[in-house]
Amino acid sequence: MTVALWCILIAICLPYLCTGVAKFSNGKFGLKQNHDPRAFLDSLEGVARRAHSAQLNSFEVTPAFAAAVIVAHLAGNAELVTINVLSVLFITSRLLYIICYLADWAILRSLVWAIGMGLIVSFFVVSV
């Protein structure tokens, strides 16, 4: 397996890191809240709420990243090292995005999000 394909697995797992922060950062998640975790997550505030939002965004962007990596592999026109580097950069951008979200750095978060989306587009550009 290539580094890029492993990065897809990492991207799939990243939302669950955010889920853990959202559920356990305020110390209020327990068996009672697990009966309706979505309602619990909707009731959060502060860093826990931002972690939940980062989780949702991570779930939203992962299919696009996975598709971009797969298309780049299938097209066969891009160097493997280029695909791998773009994948690692994307994962790095997602980690920075999560950090910015948790820290409530809204403008920087939006900039990092745009970079991540640009990286997704770049998979298609290098595959032409």
UniProtKB/TrEMBL annotation:
Gene3D superfamilies: Membrane associated eicosanoid/glutathione metabolism-like domain (1.20.120.550). The chain crosses the membrane at residues 81-103, 110-127. It is found in: Membrane. Signal peptide: none annotated. GO terms for cellular component: membrane. It comes from the Bacteria. Keywords: Membrane, Transmembrane, Transmembrane helix. Pfam families: MAPEG. InterPro entries: MAPEG-like_dom_sf (IPR023352), Membr-assoc_MAPEG (IPR001129). PANTHER family: BLR7753 PROTEIN, INNER MEMBRANE PROTEIN. This is MAPEG family protein. It comes from Pseudomonas frederiksbergensis.
